[in-house]
């Protein structure tokens, strides 16, 4: 079923981050059932018209939704909604994650959740999942070199780690939170770290490589430690900024 172009998504007030605002709007519609699994989203041009944003913003938002497992794109055909994972009564509204304090609280949850996920991923990951993680890291490095979107491959890497636990609840929770878990979608993380964007992202990339290396070696304790270090570094940078 194709969603009528004028009812599929409802423009909201202009968000701090245009792509993230578009992600949140479409995500709300999918989880509320206004856009049902199998429904075709409007064309890029129609979304551009509705929200008054560029094609680059639309493509970045759709890429993030795809990484979150909420939509899939068939090239030359269109983008379709998928069945949302998780569900239940658990709710974290990404629109409410806007202050440093909000992000610190979420990072505390992520440290507990993702450190253990990394350890389980090291023990249980498949060769195919490991390859997908490497592709996500390569995409991050490519975007870093070109000045492109690093949020999508960043979230994709963390989601792949969760999926590699072979425990669907880790992946369900990560999918529910979506790319809002990446602090720089809510605030200027590089500014808080008192360094330029390229240097900040290069350090994030190295921390990802450490996590990947431990998972590749199937060293569960090293994977837990690398993930904890990665997320704790983000938390400490924000605490110092406060």
Oligomer: single chain
Strand percent estimate: under 5%
| CATH hierarchy, class of the largest domain | Mainly Alpha
Number of strands: 2
Order of helices and strands: HHHEEHHHHHHH
The CATH homologous superfamily of the largest domain corresponds to GntR ligand-binding domain-like
Q: What would you call the shape?
A: globular
CATH architecture of the largest domain: Up-down Bundle
Q: How many angstroms separate the termini?
A: 49 Å
Structural class: mainly alpha
Radius of gyration: 18 Å
Give unreliable regions as ranges.
11-16
Task: Report the sheet with the most strands, covering strand number, pairing sense and barrel closure.
Answer: 2 strands, antiparallel
Helix content range of the residues, please? Answer: 55-70%
Number of spatially distinct domains: 2
- Stated plainly, the CATH topology of the largest domain is called Four Helix Bundle (Hemerythrin (Met), subunit A)
- Number of distinct helices: 10
Mean pLDDT over the full residue set:
83
């Amino acid at each position: 079923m194709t969603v009528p172009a004028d009812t599929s998504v409802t423009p909201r007030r202009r968000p701090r981050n245009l792509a993230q605002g578009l992600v949140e709007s479409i995500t709300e519609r999918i989880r509320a059932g206004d856009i049902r699994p199998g429904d075709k989203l409007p064309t890029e041009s129609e979304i551009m018209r509705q929200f008054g944003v560029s094609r680059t913003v639309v493509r970045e938002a759709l890429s993030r939704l795809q990484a979150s497992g909420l939509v899939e794109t068939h090239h030359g055909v269109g983008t379709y909604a998928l069945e949302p994972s998780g569900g239940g009564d658990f709710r974290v509204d990404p629109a409410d994650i806007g202050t440093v304090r909000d992000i610190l609280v979420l990072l505390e949850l992520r440290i507990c959740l993702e450190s253990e996920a990394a350890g389980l991923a090291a023990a249980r990951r498949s060769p195919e999942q490991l390859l997908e993680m490497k592709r996500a890291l390569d995409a991050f490095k490519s975007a870093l070199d070109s000045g492109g979107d690093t949020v999508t491959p960043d979230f994709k890497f963390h989601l792949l780690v969760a999926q590699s636990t072979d425990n669907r609840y880790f992946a369900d929770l990560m999918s529910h939170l979506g790319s809002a878990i990446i602090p720089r979608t809510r605030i200027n993380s590089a500014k808080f770290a008192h360094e330029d964007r390229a240097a900040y992202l290069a350090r994030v990339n190295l921390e990802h490589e450490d996590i990947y290396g431990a998972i590749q070696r199937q060293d569960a304790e090293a994977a837990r430690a690398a993930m904890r270090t990665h997320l704790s570094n983000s938390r400490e940078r924000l605490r110092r900024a406060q």
